[in-house]
């Protein structure tokens, strides 16, 4: 018998499922805590538990598929490696567009002369000497490079030359913008390249961890990775283009939702530890975002499911707000729940919480902890960051001990963004433990932590909550409110309304969801069922569906839907290009290896389509599809001039795909 193994690594849990391919059913599922910095521990534990439960031997596994939210979480939380952007032929103002400046932050930018015109002709010679000098002058700590050239989608020659030089001088991984997208829009393509470079180390680490454990078990089946549009790619492709795995987990969850429920039309909301991902399921398939994936504040050029991803999850940080009445908000940063921290470090956490509860005034740091999660010794740190790292070499400690002065907090936040440390604090998961909805970790520690938070004073001088149970209910109610807001934003956006965020928060919307009765009766509800996914969906989503006035579907195996979706997809390799005209009788096909000129538009389009067909087929076969099927999409723009149709440009996209080959068992 042939079995399929699906693995999903999220911010909190790594899930594994075993599917019987012939019977089309889940044989076993298991969860393990995602382990940092050594992801292999959590991946191995989940795989071992699922295989043991299924009583399946390694030689019966015919395919392994991996999905992950690590890349998505990293972008939402502003984490990832330090990168350098090499910008070729860009003006300084261009580098401030598309959110590029915000994404770069303090990371270095190298600007050099070069670039091409819209036609693909060279605008200026690439200044290789200046690039060499700048590379040699870079400070330590850069983990990878992004290269973006002006109109590289029309001619990638300068990006390729810069890439080769960077590899020769530094030996570090390099991402070229044209490798990720052939669409025009230099700053947006540069942003996508920067984010890809930032994620390379993280995704490579995960794939290596998975491959290592499969080899240890003797599983020789091919490893596939879920892309952001739900298609499968080889692990080699995912290593080179980790940006394509953003929304990988959410895309897999939508496929899993359809497989688990049989629903064709529904809103899917998947709550994880870090994010809530919402997508519309139409005719059994997720919608694809034509403008590129949006994750957190960034709009990329990556083709992915039309997913709205928000920093709201079971492990979202609880922020206590100021004001007369007091209150709280959740996210977007993930922290380790206090109930989990107490499971891992019981003496440290309970002792600190007991000491804090014995005081009349709650501590300034709200009882939070700082936990080191680096693997190799961190390098490239400034003086304050190095000081905090030095303190943490002894192990986790209270936040007030790790950052002892106000100005050290900024350094601590940078260490969090670099993924070197994480905070432990109160979360919705702790609230669920206090209310008896979860019993996975240390409920006693959660109760102590929420008792401490409840003592915080409001602006009116009152305690924030009467006790831990009231505090827990406040947190769960806030999660319900923010989830409803996310779902309504997604629904308004899909219906084509302008400013869906403002509409979701409009008083009339709230009145409609309240079913307000008066001289004016106001009613509003979601027009489709809501499928709730995620390990904690059963804990939170009943009230969400009630508030939205719709049916809530919480399927069996909802907690491992991502891992299920990971193995039910197909390979789909997209390659695109364009044909432009520089004048009468001159048509340029922008081929993968550079522009070529033809006398007619039909000849140029035929040459481009043939080249794209070869490239897409090669990529599909490299991803395990023996006989790919092809789909060609043409978008030809013409203009009427003096009564005649004149060719302006053409966009051609070739997709090669199919089910990946299944290993013989």
Tell me the major beta sheet.
6 strands, mixed
In the sheet with the most strands, the strands line up as 3-2-1-4-9-10
Q: How far apart lie the N and C ends?
A: 7 Å
What is the overall silhouette?
A: globular
Please report the number of helical segments.
Answer: 22
Helical proportion, percent range: 25-40%
Mean of all residue-level pLDDT scores = 89
Chain oligomer state: single chain
- Please tally the β strands and state the result: 29
What ranges have pLDDT less than 50 throughout 5 or more consecutive residues? none
Roughly what fraction of the amino acids lie in strands? 15-25%
Radius of gyration (CA) equals 26 Å
Structural class: alpha/beta
Could you explain how this protein is built, in words?
The chain has 665 residues and is an alpha/beta fold. It has 22 helices and 29 strands. The strands form 7 sheets. Strands 3-2-1-4-9-10 form a 6-stranded mixed beta sheet, sandwiched between helices. The N and C termini lie close together (7 Å). The model has no long low-confidence stretch (mean pLDDT 89).
């Amino acid at each position: 018998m042939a079995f399929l193994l699906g693995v999903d690594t999220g911010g909190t849990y790594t899930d594994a499922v075993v599917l019987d391919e012939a019977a089309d059913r889940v044989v076993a599922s298991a969860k393990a805590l995602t382990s940092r910095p050594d992801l292999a521990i959590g991946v191995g534990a989940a795989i071992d538990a699922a295989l043991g439960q299924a009583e399946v031997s390694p030689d019966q596994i015919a395919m392994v598929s991996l999905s992950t939210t690590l890349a998505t979480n990293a972008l939402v939380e502003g984490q990832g490696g330090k990168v350098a952007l090499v910008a070729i032929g860009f003006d300084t103002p261009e580098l401030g567009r598309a959110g590029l400046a915000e994404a770069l932050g303090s990371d270095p930018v190298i600007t050099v002369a070069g670039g091409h015109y819209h036609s693909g002709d060279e605008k200026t010679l690439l200044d290789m000497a200046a690039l060499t000098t700048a590379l040699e002058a870079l400070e330590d700590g850069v983990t990878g490079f992004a290269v973006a050239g002006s109109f590289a989608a029309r001619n990638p020659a300068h990006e390729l030359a810069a890439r080769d030089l960077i590899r020769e001088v530094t030996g570090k991984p390099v991402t070229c913008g044209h490798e990720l997208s052939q669409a025009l829009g230099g700053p947006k393509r540069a942003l996508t390249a920067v984010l890809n470079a930032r994620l390379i180390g993280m995704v490579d680490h995960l794939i290596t961890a998975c491959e290592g454990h499969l080899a240890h078990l003797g599983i020789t089946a091919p490893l596939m990775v879920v892309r952001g549009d739900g298609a499968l790619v080889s692990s080699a492709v995912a290593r080179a283009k980790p940006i394509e795995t953003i929304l990988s987990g959410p895309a897999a969850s939508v496929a899993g939702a359809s497989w688990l429920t049989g629903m064709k039309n529904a809103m899917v909301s998947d709550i994880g530890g870090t994010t809530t991902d919402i997508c519309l399921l139409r005719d059994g398939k997720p919608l694809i975002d034509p403008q590129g994936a949006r994750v957190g504040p960034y709009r990329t050029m990556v083709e992915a499911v039309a997913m709205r991803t928000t920093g709201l999850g079971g492990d979202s940080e609880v922020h206590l707000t100021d004001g007369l009445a007091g209150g709280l908000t959740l996210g977007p940063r993930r922290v380790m729940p206090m109930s989990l921290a107490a499971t891992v470090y019981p003496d440290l956490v309970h002792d600190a919480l007991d000491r804090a509860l014995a005081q009349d005034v709650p501590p300034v740091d709200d009882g939070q902890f700082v936990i080191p999660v680096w693997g190799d010794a961190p390098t490239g740190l400034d003086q304050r960051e190095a000081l905090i790292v030095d303190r943490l070499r002894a192990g986790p400690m209270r936040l007030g001990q790790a950052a002892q002065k106000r100005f050290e907090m900024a350094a601590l936040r940078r260490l969090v963004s670099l993924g070197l440390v994480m905070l432990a604090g109160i979360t919705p998961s702790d609230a669920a433990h206090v209310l008896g909805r979860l019993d996975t970790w240390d409920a006693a520690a959660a109760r102590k932590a929420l008792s401490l938070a409840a003592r915080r004073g409001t602006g009116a001088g009152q305690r924030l909550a009467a006790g831990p149970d009231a505090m827990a209910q406040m947190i769960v109610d806030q999660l319900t409110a923010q989830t409803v807001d996310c779902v309504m934003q997604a629904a308004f956006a899909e219906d084509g309304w302008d400013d869906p965020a403002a509409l979701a928060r409009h008083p009339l919307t709230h009145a409609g969801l309240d079913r307000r009765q008066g001289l004016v009766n106001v009613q509003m509800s979601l027009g489709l069922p809501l499928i709730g996914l995620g390990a904690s969906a059963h804990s939170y989503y009943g009230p969400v569906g009630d508030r939205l006035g719709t049916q809530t579907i919480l399927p069996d195996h909802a907690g491992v839907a991502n891992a299920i979706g990971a193995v039910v997809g197909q390979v789909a390799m997209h390659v695109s290009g364009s044909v432009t005209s520089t004048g009468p009788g001159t048509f340029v096909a922008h081929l993968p290896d550079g522009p070529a000129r033809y006398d007619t538009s039909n000849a140029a389009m035929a040459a481009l389509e043939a080249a794209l067909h070869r490239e897409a087929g090669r990529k599909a076969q490299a991803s395990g599809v023996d006989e790919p099927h092809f789909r060609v999409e043409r978008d030809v723009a013409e203009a009427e001039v003096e009564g005649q149709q004149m060719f302006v440009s053409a966009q051609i996209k070739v997709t090669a795909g199919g089910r990946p080959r299944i290993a013989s068992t």
